[in-house]
Design brief:
This protein has 379 residues and is an alpha+beta fold. It is built from 11 helices and 16 strands. 22% of the residues are buried.
Length: 379
């Protein structure tokens, strides 16, 4: 009767809580809709909905077998559920979820289901009815793919490290003419392996902290490790003494040149840079190139990217000026949040290379200017 009174007084539809139908003796939800005549509510049109309607809607979403999707009325009572529906209809939400449903419009939190499973639950309320929907995903299923990838990566890394160590020891034994020479080679190998592992560890840890999903983390980690590998390829060809800056830039942009034909231009004089600077510049250029392909100029058919650099040796101190310029892409705006990619670029330029970074978010295209002291790049 309360819902009927509100229909005539307010002239808006009403949706009930969970009710027990006295005719068919089953759980129902009632919808009351006003019928207008001459500007006034003349009738109330009511329908009692079987709860199977809501169960069907949930199952059409094809949830994973271990997910729990549920619909609750305003009192937090289960209306429909993807798992064990008949057992839980009419029961209140689990205690760990109930407080959130009653006090917040939407959110995510860790909860425990009635069968004791720890799940990450996201929920929201419908503004009109006040009903709510919640999706619970077992936390174990969220991390299993990541840990599988980490395990594979660790196994490959251990195998590569083992082969690399064996090869280095063999090479050191064959070439070294004294115990001092062998110790020097082994110490150099250990130093480079530790630096590489520390770099990969930092990339993985920072990417996981800022990733929005497991799939996104796996993709970004793969891209950054590949960029690191390209820098190592360039250095390996030069016996880790130095690298040619042009060759480094081309190694980073070449995969995107294949996809975007001649829309990437590279201008600059030949310049030798040391191994530390090579790795730092490779990570910076990879982040800029990835962003351009996803969101920047290369995401549009007419977009172009230009990379150019020049050394100012006649000034004191001499510096290298490198400019990344995007044109023809979508309109650029200053980012609302700082991701790990931006942090990686800034720290590589300022901390690792002792330079300065200027970003111009021009609507016509991003312009990134890097000014680096040549003494920090010197071989």
């Amino acid at each position: 009767m309360e819902a009927l009174r509100r229909v005539f007084e307010k002239g808006v539809p009403q949706i009930s809580e969970l009710l027990f139908g006295p005719v068919l003796h089953r759980n129902i939800a009632v919808v009351d809709v006003p019928v207008w005549r001459d500007g006034k509510v003349a009738y109330d049109l009511a329908a009692s909905l079987p709860l199977s309607i809501f169960t069907d809607i949930i199952m059409r979403q094809r949830p994973e077998p271990d997910w729990t999707i549920a619909v609750f009325d305003r009192e937090g009572t289960v209306i429909a559920r993807s798992r064990d529906n008949e057992e839980f209809v009419g029961r209140p939400a689990s205690p760990s979820l109930y407080a959130g449903l009653m006090n917040r419009f939407e959110g995510t939190l860790d909860t425990t289901t009635f069968d004791g499973t720890v799940v990450l639950t996201g929920f929201t309320h419908a503004p009109f009815s006040g009903w709510s929907a919640a999706v619970g995903i077992p936390k174990s299923s969220l991390t299993i793919e990541l840990w599988r990838s980490v395990a594979v990566l660790a196994a490959v890394g251990i195998v590569c490290l083992a082969f690399g160590t064996l090869f280095a020891v063999h090479l050191a034994t064959q070439l070294a003419r004294s115990q001092a020479d062998r110790e020097l080679l082994i110490n150099e190998l250990n130093h480079r392996v530790k630096n590489t592992l520390a770099t990969v560890h930092g990339l993985v840890a920072s990417t996981l902290r800022s990733a929005v999903s497991i799939a996104d983390a796996k993709k970004v980690i793969g891209e950054r490790v590949i960029a690191l590998g390209r820098a190592h390829d360039v250095l390996t060809e030069e016996h880790w003494e130095s690298a040619d800056l042009r060759e480094l830039v081309l190694s980073i942009v070449q995969p995107y040149r294949t996809e975007h034909t001649n829309r990437i231009e590279v201008f600059g004089a030949d310049l030798r840079v040391n191994p530390r600077a090579t790795v730092a510049l490779a990570m910076v250029l990879n982040e800029l190139m990835t962003n351009a392909a996803k969101y920047g100029a290369l995401s549009q058919p007419e977009g172009r990217v230009r990379v150019k650099w020049n050394a100012t040796e006649d000034r004191s101190p001499p510096k290298l000026r490198m400019v990344w310029m995007e044109m023809g892409g979508p309109s650029v705006q200053s980012p609302i949040r700082r991701g790990f990619g931006s942090t990686l670029i800034e720290q590589s330029i300022t901390r690792d290379l002792g330079g300065a970074l200027e970003k111009n978010f021009d609507p016509a295209g991003l312009i990134c200017t890097m000014t680096l002291p040549l003494e920090r790049l010197a071989t």
